[in-house]
Specification:
This protein is α+β, with helices and mostly antiparallel strands. Helices cover about 35% and strands about 20% of the residues. It has a single domain (about 1-150), classed as 3-Layer(aba) Sandwich (SMI1/KNR4-like), CATH 3.40.1580. It has 5 helices and 7 strands; from the N terminus they run αβααββαββββα. The strands form 2 sheets. The chain has a 4-stranded antiparallel beta sheet. Strands 1-2-3 form a 3-stranded antiparallel beta sheet, with no helix packed on it. Strand 4 and strand 5 form a beta hairpin. The protein is globular. This is SMI1/KNR4 family protein.
């Protein structure tokens, strides 16, 4: 499973990261309930261990401390996802990172599950509303970025 490799890479390079830290399971569940969906196992593992933040220049959106009281800006996954719901973000999508150009975001499509009980990652453009599948799971997505640096 890619997420296990990802967690090891992060731990081995923690000095290159800026994460908020562990998030309690009940806070993760509260965020899921507010969004009205379930996080895939790999993304949930990331959030429970690191919350949100960046490593090697890639910022991963998640939970800062509490979805209700967190600042209403990036990297708050609840805020960014809700912000784009009325701007064409497909139902069941969670925004987890941005590409840095052209209004494109990496999203988790919770409407689809693969054989490993994971949800695929889609690149979604907030201007033209086009989307395309780019990874089979959150673990694969993050591993692809991190492997270049180790």
């Amino acid at each position: 499973m890619s997420i296990i490799r990802v967690l090891k890479i992060i731990e081995n390079n923690i000095e290159e990261s800026d994460f908020v830290g562990k998030i309690k399971v009940d806070i993760v569940k509260k965020t899921e309930n507010i969004l009205g969906l379930k996080f895939p196992k790999s993304y949930r593992m990331f959030i429970e261990n690191y919350g949100c933040g960046d490593i090697f220049g890639i910022e991963i959106f998640g939970i800062i401390s509490d979805p209700i009281t967190d600042v209403q800006t990036i990297p708050n996954v609840l805020w960014i996802t809700n912000e784009f719901k009325n701007k064409g973000l497909p139902k069941g999508y969670i925004i987890i990172s941005e590409t840095g150009d052209d209004g494109s975001y990496y999203t988790i499509n919770t409407n689809i599950k693969n054989d490993c009980d994971e949800n695929p990652i889609y690149l979604w453009n907030s201007f033209n509303l086009k989307e395309s599948k780019v990874y089979d799971s959150f673990g694969d997505f993050l591993y692809d970025f991190l492997k270049e640096h180790v």
